[in-house]
């Protein structure tokens, strides 16, 4: 009797990409991030909105965390897609079709990158183009700017995916990820030289919007820090998949 061969990695990746793209939350999240990013870029370039900080109102450019905040719309999609695997029972079905859990973990992470990269580019490109028209950088500088932002979005997506996989709850994962920058912004975590290594703060440094801040990481170090968080999250996702019951 012929035994069906396990699906190839590329077939599993294709199936995972399809699940992510067809999930009801994905398109609204990407379009929402696109709209908010573009609106923020228009506000920054026109300088029609200023916020008070105890003295003279300043441009939104003075609030790097606010400029990076639209990424959380994409993280909602990432966490919701990952969390729905467990809340809907799809996780058990997937393990039945792909019993080799190591192969499944690799395929899921590849699919995540395959979806989050173009999604981040779509959400960011128009806004970065608006800002580039004001700043007038060269083509190479403009491409580097977009690349830094996309990298930050993708690495944060891996962090969100891995955390959701471990806690098996989109709400809990998003709560943790969103609470940390709020606590930092409100001064509830008064250790600037420590909190700069948190994912959101590292992502802010990767994009370059935190340049000039006394405690901000350099972009190169920030890439390593955020990449380290992403590797840790990917490892946690893999370990959870390998060693926990469905």
TrEMBL record:
KW Ligase (keyword) present: no
Keywords (A to Z) from UniProt: Membrane, Transmembrane, Transmembrane helix
Top-level lineage group: Bacteria
Keyword Transmembrane helix: yes
Chain ranges passing through the membrane: 21-43, 63-83, 104-126, 146-167, 174-192, 212-236
Protein name: ABC transporter
Organism: Cellulomonas xiejunii
């Amino acid at each position: 009797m012929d035994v069906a061969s396990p699906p190839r990695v590329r077939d599993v990746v294709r199936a995972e990409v399809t699940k992510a793209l067809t999930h009801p939350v994905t398109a609204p999240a990407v379009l929402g991030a696109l709209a908010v990013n573009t609106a923020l870029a228009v506000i920054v370039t026109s300088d029609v909105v200023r916020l008070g900080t105890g003295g003279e109102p300043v441009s939104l450019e003075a609030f790097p965390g606010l400029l990076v905040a639209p990424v959380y719309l994409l993280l909602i999609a990432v966490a919701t897609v990952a969390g729905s695997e467990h809340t809907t029972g799809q996780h058990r079905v997937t393990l039945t079709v792909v019993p080799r859990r190591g192969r499944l973990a690799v395929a899921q992470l590849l699919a995540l990158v395959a979806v989050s990269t173009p999604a981040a580019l779509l959400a960011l490109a128009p806004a970065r183009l608006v800002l580039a028209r004001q700043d007038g950088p060269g083509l190479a500088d403009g491409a580097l700017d977009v690349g830094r932002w996309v990298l930050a979005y993708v690495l944060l997506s891996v962090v969100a995916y891995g955390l959701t996989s471990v806690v098996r709850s989109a709400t809990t994962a998003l709560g943790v990820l969103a609470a940390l920058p709020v606590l930092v912004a409100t001064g509830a975590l008064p250790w600037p030289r420590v909190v700069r290594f948190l994912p959101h703060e590292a992502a802010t440094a990767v994009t370059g919007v935190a340049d000039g801040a006394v405690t901000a990481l350099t972009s190169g170090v920030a890439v390593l820090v955020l990449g380290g968080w992403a590797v840790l999250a990917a490892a946690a996702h893999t370990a959870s998949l390998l060693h926990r019951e469905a």
